[in-house]
What does this fold into?
Amino acid sequence: MRTSKFLLATIKETPADAEIISHQLMVRAGLIRKLASGLYSWLPLGFKVLNKVTQIVREEMDKSGAMEVVMPVVQPSELWEESGRWQGMGPELLRFQDRHERDFCLGPTHEEVITDIVRSEYSSYKQLPAILYQIQSKFRDERRPRFGIMRSREFIMKDAYSFHKDEESLQQTYEVMHQTYCNIFSRLGLDYRPVIADSGNIGGSTSHEFHVLADSGEDEIVFSSDSNYAANRELAEGGLASPNADEESLEQQTVDTGDATTIDQVSALLHIEPTKMVKTLLVHGADKEGNRTDDLVALLLRGDQELNETKAQKLDGVAAPLHFADDDSIKKTIGCPPGCIGPQNLSIRIIADHSVTDLKNFACGANTEGKHITNQNWSDQCKFNDSADIRKIQEGDPSPDGQGTLSIKRGIEVGHIFQLGKKYSEALNATVLDENGKAVVMPMGCYGIGVTRIVAACIEQSHDDKGIIWPENITPFHLIVVQIDAHKSDQVKAYSEQIYADAQALGLEVLLDDRDKKTSPGVKFAESELIGIPHRVVVSPRSLADNVVEYTSRSSGEKQQIDKDSLLDFIANTVNSQTSD
Ligand code: ATP
Ligand code: MG
It folds into this structure.
């Protein structure tokens, strides 16, 4: 490809709405253009990268034994009624009607459609396990589309689904998919980690997310210093030893704390460490059907700990999503303002985090404005109904497997695998006949990869202040040949054309920067760095006079003068050796 003919849509200005580097570089390098909030077009340079990512995903999925299909983006409401998600799914599901006033949605995911296919096409356990996948556009009306294609409304996902005769087979395929995902992300050259994850509202039990490590990541993941334990912070468990479980109970006192309402203020005033305080958070409860009620539930945490909302909203009788009580309902229920609430004589349901159940002689609110209690201990007047793990893991906590301590890093979720169980197959009655001729519901797995998000995640990990640095496997071009002063030198023209043709004959994708003198060498160099081509060769009258050309590696920035007659061998060795790493 020649730059004179190629849509090299680089721009100098950083777009105002681009908060993170990948978004800035994708627009500046001319990979994507915004159409509307969360909707992007892929320009030729970006689409070349996207296709390479897609191809790696496809090759590894095919190797795993999965079969590729394509399902419609538009899905009828009836299927979603069957699974219960037409009502259950929030405004992320974009619904609309056709000309006959029939309800449809744009597919945010395809469990319903695939289950419908499998229930009619499969009849015997002998045909299982079946793994089907597609690589296709999804639409989710995200509350906050941001970071360009990282969290967009329309994006490309690889979604796979597996169907089994029993749980054991599901477990086996889950492990194959886990390995397949590791193969995919390794081939893509990403620094990634599989982590134990929350299966969220999609249902099911076991789940892992695959995260690319990057400071701009929206998720927090925790790792053990001494073992393989790694989990999403939303889900990570971990006990904490009480600082004073063996202390004798002292006599409690009610003390004036005036305007001090936060843990820090009360701690400073009373000279009590937050580790010996209990904070009480009030949230709304839920009825048996899971609907939010006006009843409040108290959640107790140690003063130095933070609430993990994902864990809390999974508790029975607690509204999901978590809904904190406002000042009015607190006043109405407890009779005092927030900031001095505590468990003593509290007549609502109380759930204590494990970090407070062994605490002795702690300070907490007295349920009276401006007052706290010190040397509080669990008793008939001060008790909790249940204890649960509802705190956020902190840096330095002990690892739940007993090996080492935990550290926290940020990650970008690029893949997610779930063991769904029978959630959808039961609802849609997807059965096959087993060995005894009996109809059995098939357990399912589902496996997603954010194909478009991978491109952004890769740039987050691989860039410098000049621009993108593409890994060899997904670069839009392997080599860029920059002509300098070709209008003055036929030799430059002829030699660069020769290299262009010969390198392509080696199977490389080559971009020849053949733009005329209106584009200065400085601009050509800057653009080649911005768009991140891994190998650059500069052909100029001066270097050819010395029988050499200048080669620059994008990743190391190192320059070398290469004898012009051995350039092709050099390119063949350099590019191939890096690709096979
Ligand atoms: P997130 O927590 O980021 O919203 P999710 O749990 O909703 O992700 P899944 O339903 O598991 O995501 O989708 C599979 C994959 O699709 C994710 O791992 C992610 O890489 C990608 N993905 C999800 N939502 C988006 C989006 N809005 N834009 C781009 N990629 C997305
Ligand atoms: Mg989501």
Observations:
- The pocket of adenosine-5'-triphosphate (ligand 1) is lined by residues 109, 140, 142, 151-152, 155, 157, 200, 413-416, 448, 450, 452-453 (CB under 6 Å).
- The chain has a mean pLDDT of 94.
- The CA atoms of residues 22 and 460 lie 5 Å apart.
